[in-house]
Write a structure and sequence with these properties.
Helix content is 27%, strand content 21%. It is an alpha+beta fold.
Length: 453
């Protein structure tokens, strides 16, 4: 049986030799520039295609005691890919007739947690799993650290939350909704979400390195997280109320096994649940096709895709079940550019056109030149862009954006890695920068140097 053979192959997930696939060099050509240009310190890409498995590591793991190349068993935070596991947990409960997709979520929760409604319309389980509940992306009273956001605060926020549109009317991404779904499923089963997920999903699929709390063995293989500017970031710790949205760790080995299960459900103990999790429940009405139980169905519904990101990690999982092709990318750098490369790698193995996005390499500028740009630039009477010089170079603070490092591409042009933007400085006749020009994908903004703070 082909499906069983595929799962048997993935039981140990052997890496193919570099010369076995003609596409290996093309994959390297996509990935290696991110390391060479400093976009990422390291990442791993795993592929299933042509009945073979390939795992390629780039850069280093970034561990202080071990700077080895990332491998199939290197551990990463997978961020929002957690959601598709939550969707499968829901599908499993549906197949066991414990819940129904159309069931109001309030029926699974304790009485003290009130769920907002839109008139008579209630939030149902399917709304949470398709981001169509009307709930906001995140609670607006999140604690720092997140782990302090306990059930009492969770309940308090839900009680005060007002839906601005009817559940099921539109799909708007919501971490809060995913967290609520996992919390509800756990409460209905009388178990913590992570315990329930382990019992019903990860153990049956032999995903021993996919879990929220790290084992000692996993901790030794963890690649420490970094932001887009290469600064170390602490581990993400989510409270039980939000774990179903983004709390899992995993490896390329495990996610390839998970991909194989989704490509061949009949060879698994969760066959019907996997099929249920794949069916589109919210139709976008465009080329993206729709959303299943957290899976994005793209390319006319042919593929299953999801990305993930935390403060220090990026992840991607793309599966074409019919063609038995899957690509996973795991990185310990929180740069959106890694999503682009992962999608290009998926397109490469699907035989689709690859749209390569230029990767900028910064040039070195003396601090004496960088000092010219330091200052405050007025966007409006009340808002300013501020540029300062740190140990690693120029740092910019733009209102409404995170503090980010500026990387020089010339003596007047800079780019950012933390978010997509380019900066140019216009100078006067003395060579002193007077105007900063901020270019994003959809806007151009100018700000003039302030004469005094």
């Amino acid at each position: 049986m082909i499906a069983a053979g595929l799962l048997a192959l993935l039981a140990s997930v052997p890496a193919a030799h570099a010369g076995e696939w003609t596409l290996t060099r093309s994959l390297d050509a996509l990935a290696q520039p991110l390391i060479e240009c400093g976009v990422a310190s390291g990442f791993v890409i795993g592929v299933i295609a042509d009945g073979k498995v390939m795992i390629r590591g780039y850069g280093t793991t970034g561990r202080a005691t071990d700077a080895s190349v990332p491998a199939g068993d290197t551990v990463y935070e997978i961020g929002s890919i957690t959601k598709v596991f939550t969707g499968l947990l829901l599908a499993d409960a549906v197949e066991r007739e414990l819940v129904a997709l159309g069931q109001p979520v309030r029926e699974l929760l304790p009485n003290e947690i009130g769920v907002p409604t839109y008139g008579p319309r209630e939030i149902r389980l399917v709304h949470l799993a398709t981001h169509s509940s009307g709930l906001p992306r995140d609670p607006d009273d999140l604690s720092h650290p997140y782990v302090l956001y306990d059930e009492a605060r969770f309940a308090s926020f839900l009680a005060s939350c007002e839906l601005t549109w009817s559940p099921g009317a539109r799909s708007v991404y919501s971490n809060l909704g995913a967290g609520l779904l996992g919390h509800a499923l756990g409460h209905a089963a009388g178990k913590e979400f992570d315990t329930l997920l382990k019992e019903r999903v990860t153990l049956p699929l032999a995903l021993h390195d996919t879990r929220i709390a790290l084992s000692d063995a996993m901790r030794a293989r963890l690649a420490p997280g970094h932001d887009a500017d290469g600064r170390a970031r602490p581990a993400l710790r989510l409270p039980p109320t939000l774990q179903a949205a983004s709390a899992l760790h995993s490896t390329a080995n495990d996610l390839l096994r998970f991909a194989a299960a989704n490509m061949a459900p009949e060879a698994t103990p969760l066959a019907e649940a996997l099929r249920t999790s794949h069916r589109i429940r919210f139709d976008y009405g465009n080329e993206c096709n729709g959303i299943a139980l957290f899976w994005n169905r793209r390319q006319g519904g042919a593929t299953l895709e999801h990305t993930g990101g935390t403060l220090g990690y990026r992840s991607f999982l793309g599966i074409h079940p019919e063609r038995r092709i899957a690509v996973v990318m795991l990185a310990n750098t929180a740069s959106d550019r890694l999503d682009d490369i992962a999608r290009e790698a998926f397109a490469l193995f699907l035989g689709s056109p690859v749209e390569r996005v230029p990767i900028h390499a910064p040039i070195a500028l003396p601090r004496k030149i960088l000092e010219r740009f330091v200052g405050s630039y007025e966007l409006s009477p009340t808002e300013r862009i501020r540029v300062r010089l740190g140990e690693d170079g120029l740092v910019i603070r733009i209102p409404g954006k995170p503090i980010a490092r500026l990387y020089p591409s010339s003596e007047r042009d800079f780019f950012l890695r933390k978010f997509e933007a380019n900066i140019a400085f216009e100078s006067d006749s003395t060579g002193t920068p007077q105007v900063i020009v901020l270019r994003t994908h959809d806007d151009i903004v100018k700000a003039r140097r302030a004469q005094a703070e």
